[in-house]
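Appendix B, Record 12. Input sequence as logged:
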Amino acid sequence: MAPDTEPQPPPPLKRSTYRHGNLRNALLEAALELAREGGPDSVSLREVTRRAGVSPNAAYRHFADRGALVHGVSQAAMARVALAMEAEIDGLPAAQDPAERARARFRAVGTGYIRFAVTEPGWFRTAFHVPADMTYATDTTAAGAGGLTPFELLGASLDGLVETGILPPARRPGAEFLAWSAVHGLASLIIDGPLRGVTPEQAHDAGQDVITMIERGL
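Logged structural output:
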């Protein structure tokens, strides 16, 4: 007589239908999982559709090819950069002095950016994989909860420095690119360059030094 065995649950059903818009979101979420694990090169239409539980052909209704999918996940990863920067700003202690608030906000933007690169290197690499120009730097697909993209958050923080008299108006044009270049360069050195071996504490300290250097140079 065969030994008693507990009945096994049936295998999960493969999801074959989605409400309008849900499939695109499901594909993007699956692509984000892959990007988080292995960066943009790990994103493939076949694996994304497998994780979403649909046939590969279903993806073509929302993404014309792999390039379109990677572009979509790049924008979604950029939105997560914005969320990290917003979280850093939201965590600032209250400050009564407007200039002090503006300076702290500017520093939080850079701190959140570097912190995200160190803690989420797969997403960080994906965020800057495409596009090759500034066309989508202000697109809502790359925005955080407050509706601003990372580039716009940086711009807003620089505007705050001007409004409080810290940054002379004549030196405001193009300041985003100077600040961004310095902070992004450090982030890249930490996650993909010769600074890969530094500890999170060392990365944070280096980030604060770079931000201070930017402040003094603006």
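Residues 3 and 126 are 52 Å apart (CA to CA).
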